[in-house]
User: Which sequence fits this backbone?
């Protein structure tokens, strides 16, 4: 089954404790992206990747890192989480030339 | 920054009625897409309309695009309780998947 898998789905952590949210897709998509969703602000893009070893900043990259060492994986790293990073995070993938995106089920992160 | 802005922010209708929501955007686009999100779940792609298209249908969905007004509309006909969800428009400005999403329209379909 074609899918985008995120882990963990739920996480409560404390300020400053490094964490990684993993994202994996099985559709051989070149493009992958991370979004955060906050009430009243819609979905905002954090980082995206057009292919292996190619990443670029989205609209709200501060406080986040990503890597794309393999085509299927695109982890989101919060080196020193802060409470303003409490949010619902979505990973998405698609073909590089544009078109629909396939979304994961989301990872709800709370930073205390 | 939000490229697309949906209107209304929320919509409540009876089962069987039609639901219409609009999306306005600011800059030229390559295509515009509509997605659905059930509460707290991942977004699901509904339909894509390219900048050179004016109308597109998919089942009970009808999407229009007016590039001169920089606006799009999504019509759901004969709505069902299962259509209760948030609907988002997303614009692709450069055919590179860099979609920019609007704030969404919350639709409640009452049985």
Assistant:
């Amino acid at each position: 089954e074609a899918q985008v898998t995120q882990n963990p789905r739920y996480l409560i952590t404390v300020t400053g404790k490094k964490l990684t949210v993993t994202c994996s897709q099985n559709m051989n998509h070149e493009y992958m992206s991370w979004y955060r969703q906050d009430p009243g602000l819609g979905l905002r893009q954090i980082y995206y990747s057009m292919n292996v070893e190619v990443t670029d900043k989205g609209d709200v990259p501060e406080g986040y890192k990503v890597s794309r060492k393999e085509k299927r994986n695109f982890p989101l790293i919060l080196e020193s989480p802060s409470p303003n990073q409490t949010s619902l995070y979505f990973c998405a993938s698609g073909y590089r030339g544009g078109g629909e995106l396939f979304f994961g089920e989301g990872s709800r992160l709370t930073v205390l | 920054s939000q490229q697309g802005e949906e209107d209304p922010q929320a919509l409540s209708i009876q089962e069987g009625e039609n639901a219409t929501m609009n999306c306005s955007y600011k800059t030229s686009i390559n295509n515009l897409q509509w997605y659905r999100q059930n509460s707290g779940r991942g977004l699901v792609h509904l339909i894509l309309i390219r900048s050179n298209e004016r109308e597109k249908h998919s089942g009970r969905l009808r999407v229009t695009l007016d590039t001169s007004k920089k606006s799009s509309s999504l019509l759901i006909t004969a709505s069902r309780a299962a259509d209760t969800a948030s609907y988002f428009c997303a614009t692709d400005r450069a055919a590179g998947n860099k979609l920019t999403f609007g704030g969404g329209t919350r639709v409640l379909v009452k049985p």
Observations:
- The longest strand of chain A covers residues 42-51.
